[in-house]
Design brief:
By secondary structure, this protein is an alpha+beta fold. The protein contains five helices and three strands, in the order ααββαβαα.
């Protein structure tokens, strides 16, 4: 009997899982806020996941805790062996153009 590999996540599945991760200060999901810039799934069996994201500000006091929450969520997915979160500020986060319509309403932008 051939060994069965664990189900490996796709980029879309990782994005979907990250919808449940909230910004600890705004208490809104990182996907709706537009903080998630990219997801790359790689490795011999697609078991390595790199998430590129930003924070609401470069001086975010909860940045390290926030990064760990995202890494932990990604590591919890079946088949993931390695989770890496890269924080970038290029482009800078702008909720007027990056947040979902629902998030804009909650933020009072509309």
């Amino acid at each position: 009997m051939a060994a069965k590999w664990p189900c490996m996540p796709t980029s879309d599945e990782v994005r979907e899982a990250l919808k449940t991760v909230e910004d600890p200060e705004l208490h809104m999901g990182i996907v709706d806020l537009g903080l998630l810039y990219g997801v790359e799934v790689a490795g011999p069996q697609n078991e390595d996941v790199t998430v590129t994201m930003t924070l609401t500000s470069p001086m975010c006091p909860v940045g390290p805790m926030f990064k760990e929450a995202v890494e932990s969520k990604v590591r919890s997915l079946d088949g993931v062996k390695k989770a890496n979160v890269e924080i970038t500020f290029t482009p800078p986060w702008d909720p007027r153009t990056m947040a979902s319509d629902d998030a804009k309403v909650l933020l009072g932008i509309w």
